[in-house]
Fold this sequence. Notes:
The protein is α+β, with helices and mostly antiparallel strands and 693 residues long. It is built from 26 helices and 19 strands. Helix 7 packs across helix 9.
Amino acid sequence: MLRQYELVERVKEYDPNADEALLNRAYVYTVQKHGSQKRASGDPYFSHPVEVAGLMTDLKLDQQTIITALLHDTVEDTLATIDDIEANFGPEVARLVDGVTKLSKIEQLTEDERAAENLRKFLLAMSEDLRVLLVKLADRLHNMRTLHHISKPEKRRRIARETMDIYAPLAERVGMYEYMREMQLLAFEQLEPEAYATIVSRLEQLRSSDAGQVDRIALDFKQALSEAGLEVEVWGREKHPYSIWKKMAERHLPFEHISDIMAFRVLTDNVSDCYRALGVLHQTFQMVPGRFKDYISTPKTNGYRSLHTTVFYDKSMRCEVQIRTREMHRTNGFGLAAHWAYKQGGHVDGQVGWLRDLIEIVEQSHDPEELLEHTKLAIYQDRIFAFTPKGALHQLPKGATAVDFAYAVHTDLGAQTVGVKINGRHMPLRTPLGNGDVVEIIKGKSAQPQLHWLGFVVTGKARAAIRRSVRLRERAEIAEVGRALFEDIAKEMPTKIGKKAIAQALERLELPNENALMEAIGSAKLADRAVMEALVPGSTADLPEELKPGHALSIKGLTPGVGFTLADCCHPVPGDRIVGLRHAGESVTVHAIDCLELANGQDIDWIDLSWGERSHGAVGRLSVTLYNRPGTLAEMAEVFAKAGANVINLELAERDELFHTDIVDLEVQDLAHLTRIVSALRATDAVAQAERI
């Protein structure tokens, strides 16, 4: 553990103007506050914040960050408060400490909820001041270094999983690769102990059997480059055990088949020499196709710059080579922290503009599971590069689609997306993008995000925005249903209901506004009698047990899957007599009046519904039995085509020597349209039987 004078000397070495007295006071403060507290290892607890502060001095960060590292656990684990921190060390340090402090003292939250709230606060603080992230990453790294002292295996695995899912990717996204690799290695040891032990053992065997091979290859690379007139540094290293295991898992390969276990770095004086070195290596050694990446002309979002290639050495051994300038190498190891030039006011650095996406996710996520899911999606590192028609570059996760791209450009563009051209060709919105694709988003003024997009988008930003939009539409449409039901309730009241009565009802029901009341009625969270009692206390004494609406409510204008759900059991279409079932907290489920499933909903609130004037468009389901001979399926499809009905789904239900029965879901306009299709099917020689189900 660093002694007090050693820590101060470290800071003064790179910042002679640092306030020595303030640093000393922070050191003493954390020692006094943590007092006799012990870590799982048996060491004094204050050794942890001191070591975290030491990690910050390695990065040569400012004195406020060093003091924050020293104090980062005092609010969470001692009686100190943020006000105490501000009084002793100023508002800037207090704000930073508050950002790093976890919310583990929150009561009555599940583990996921607590983790989500911790992450929510951390991301918001990080967006205001990136030093919060740097302290948090150092805090997590030191905790991982001492994780083996925790006795409970399940707790070790939980912390390791959180590190692997959240903190290692965050370190990667700001270019702190040294932190990322060590976190991954320590987490890998806990999560996959057998695999970890096996790979480490194999690497030791390889090292002993091929003594000096890495140095020999590095020397051959350097000699080839020197003969071409290039002054370079070259050295080799074994690949990270976790990256080896990841490659084995992804490619389903045994250790013996992983041929590029060794990686080499070439350091040059300038960018031109990087490309010259690449040319020399490709001329001297055979290049492995598809393994070249140019992160100098197109840096990663975290600022990482380097040339990556893989060549065959001695005709059989594959060696990965990274070529970069010495300046790039200095900044690549610790990314954002390595070239720290903090802006006044703590604004987000251009290299980490992706933080804005994380903040949108925080604002739009509805519950803890969503927040954790969307954040993980937003920070994972495998990326592809795609361009707008004007040449603007956007980096996205592998597997990202046109909708993900639209949301990456701007949330409003994503919401208005109706189509896409990829490299000049119209393509489906679900098409995965590839490196170098030029993506032109086609938008419509009245377009809205669609629920089915959630089936193919992969970015956290897109998923969060789509879910938020659908959720807002659902609330608006449920409130519309509630407003219609409220009108029927008002007719049963002994007096006319005005604004004053509604305001008093909101107060009695503890609801914030009238729209919240309508949502509660529409989603059956409030019974009709409860609403009446809130409006006029005592008004339900002489009323019958059940209240029925005075007229059928129209679902015209509501969105299937949002304001209401068409039941899968009976597939009602416009023209059918329909009723709605209200489940508490959910949208209305619409059934045909003769649906057999209605018998199961006797204790659920029923609503008399109508389609409304000029309602059209729904999915009808048919059971069609065809003769088992060539061409009958085509004849059935011809009937659908002539009737202008689109097949949504077709499933073979039964098949024997004479017949096969298909279940067909069709987009139809209304009941009359579906009836004409059934009649046309029955008149066709290919069809033995056709029924609506």
